[in-house]
Amino acid sequence: MCLGVPMRIKQIDGFNARCEARGIERMASLFLLQHEDLQVGDLVMIHVGNAIQKMSEEEAKSAWDLYDEILDLEAGTPVGGRFAAD
């Protein structure tokens, strides 16, 4: 399964950006979003090294909440007071 990861732009150099999420930094291409007005501080969805969508704070938080839930279920951590196997 492939997932996009919401990341915040930290630095822009042409069509390349240094992005960060949860303490992890990656370089990503902004080429697919060249029609967007992207600035340092903006959130983007990164997929396979490419920014594919500009995101709002709410969209990014929602995505991270879902990913955290998936990881909790995978680890067998209780979700909402229940275990994944219940």
Describe this protein's structure:
It is built from one helix and five strands; from the N terminus they run βββββα. With 86 residues, it is an alpha+beta fold. It has a five-stranded antiparallel β-sheet, with helices on one face. β2 and β3 form a beta hairpin. The protein is elongated, with a radius of gyration of 15 Å. The mean pLDDT is 90.
Give the helices and strands, then pairings.
Elements: E1 5-13, E2 16-21, E3 24-29, E4 43-47, E5 50-55, H1 57-75
Antiparallel strand pairs: 1-2, 1-4, 2-3, 4-5
Protein traits:
1 helix; alpha+beta; 86 residues; five-stranded antiparallel β-sheet; elongated; SH3 type barrels
Oligomer: single chain
Helix content: 10-25%
Our estimate of the beta-strand percent is 35-45%
What are the secondary-structure elements, in order, as H or E?
Answer: EEEEEH
| Rg, Å, rounded | 15 Å
- Under CATH, the topology can be stated as SH3 type barrels
The computed structural class is alpha+beta
Poorly predicted residue ranges:
none
CATH class: Mainly Beta
Number of helices: 1
Q: Which strand order do you get reading across the main beta sheet?
A: 3-2-1-4-5
